[in-house]
Amino acid sequence: MAHKKQTLGEFIIENQTSFKYSSGELSSLLNSIRLAAKIVNHEVNKAGLVDIVGSVGDVNIQGEDQQKLDVYANNKFIQTLTNRNIVCGIASEEEDDFISVNSRDENHQNKYIVLIDPLDGSSNIDVNVSVGTIFSIYRRKTPVGQPVTLDDFLQKGSQQVAAGYIIYGTSTMLVYTTGDGVNGFTLNPALGSFYLSHPNMKFPEDGKICSVNEGNYTHFPQGVKNYIKYCQKEEDDRPYTFRYIGSLVSDFHRNMIKGGIYLYPKSSLLEEGKLRLLYECNPMAFLAEQANGKASDGYRRILDIQPTELHQRVPFICGSKNMVETCEAFIREVE
Ligand code: AHG
Ligand code: MN
Ligand code: MN
Questions:
Q1: What Å distances lie between residue 151 and 75, 97, 116, 310, CA to CA?
Q2: Which of 61, 247, 251, 316 best tests ligand 1's pocket when mutated (most atoms within 8 Å of CB)?
Q3: Among residues 86, 56, 90, which one has the least CA distance to residue 72?
Q4: Residues enclosing ligand 1, CB less than 6 A?
Q5: Most informative mutation of 275, 278, 317, 318 for ligand 1 (most atoms within 8 A of CB)
Q6: Cα(79) to centroid of ligand 2, in Å?
Q7: Where is 76: in which H helix or E strand?
Q8: Domain ranges of the chain
């Protein structure tokens, strides 16, 4: 039976009234993300063609090489988000400090804060493997009309108004939640429109995929090692399949569709793990919970963690509910 394909633009408008403080501003913000996604997608698709791959020479705050496309995506998202009078502050993985958006309108009422990982999985760019963008949206805490402060950004993940990612994969998709389930939209490159292709996405309760960088195995806590051995054991429906793309967005996306768990634990090399609470873990945790999944640092719900710094890292375990709970049990058993 043929049915009308809904575009992302139509979906945003139709669902506007379901937001708690609906005024059209969040819709407009989501539309600017939709626009930036298309621009960055166009550039990502050309990465192998033009001289855009390779490091630009800068090192970001985490001490990693910045690639040209990171810088491009960062600039495009910031530019697009500041163009409308909606966002009052932006923090990005690629910027040392947060940005206070100076609205053109002196009496501006801008109330939204956006946090982004503009290019996730950046080591995959020069080898033609999927990368992504992650975004997280909050309402400011300080009064409107004033400059934003660090406190506006250091909110618990549970305060998120919306979160999502764009995956630049075999097709480009935008997947997001406003706290009412998770919906996925696929870009039709011929028409330049995103269409609702994956309504109401859910993690299967159980899964058979484990995504972890096993190169760090010897440095993992004993509980994590035990869980990995459990996943490899020939028993019941195991061994699981191990799949690791090295781009959180892509690993998460596959695990949500097929059922699986993603792990970036702490290790003796990285005491707090590697992933960033504000730009990566919180938005993914919000999506996971909205899709019946779970996200934890091994002990605590990610969304309950009170952030203390902008670029804070946290151990991250996320995916199918039962798998995450089993992993947590292994970690706690050793303490
Ligand atoms: P980014 O490209 O934004 O720095 O993020 C990369 C992250 C995450 O997406 C990925 O899963 C992980 O780092 C890979 O880290 P390892 O190479 O240490 O496994
Ligand atoms: Mn990242
Ligand atoms: Mn990044």
A1: 24, 13, 17, 10
A2: 247
A3: 56
A4: 64, 93, 117, 120-122, 213, 246-248, 274
A5: 275
A6: 20
A7: helix 68-82
A8: 8-198, 209-334
Number of C-beta neighbours around residue 168 at 10 A: 30
Record the pTM. 0.94
**Quick one: fold of 209-334?**
D-Maltodextrin-Binding Protein; domain 2 (3.40.190)
The residue written with tokens 């956006």 in the block is: 114
Tens digit of each residue's pLDDT, the chain (335 residues): 456 789 999 999 888 877 655 678 999 999 999 999 999 999 999 877 765 555 566 666 776 665 589 999 999 999 999 988 899 999 999 999 999 997 666 667 899 999 999 999 999 988 999 999 999 999 999 999 889 999 999 999 999 999 999 999 999 999 999 999 999 999 999 999 999 999 999 999 999 999 999 999 999 999 999 999 999 999 999 999 999 999 999 999 999 999 999 999 999 999 999 999 999 999 999 999 999 999 999 999 999 999 999 999 999 999 999 999 999 999 999 97
* Distance from the alpha carbon of residue 119 to the mean position of ligand 2, in angstroms: 6
Candidates 3.30.930.10, 3.10.330.10, 1.20.140.10, 3.30.540.10; correct CATH number of 8-198? 3.30.540.10
Q: Residue 79 corresponds to which amino acid?
A: Q
Amino acid (1-letter code) at residue 254: R
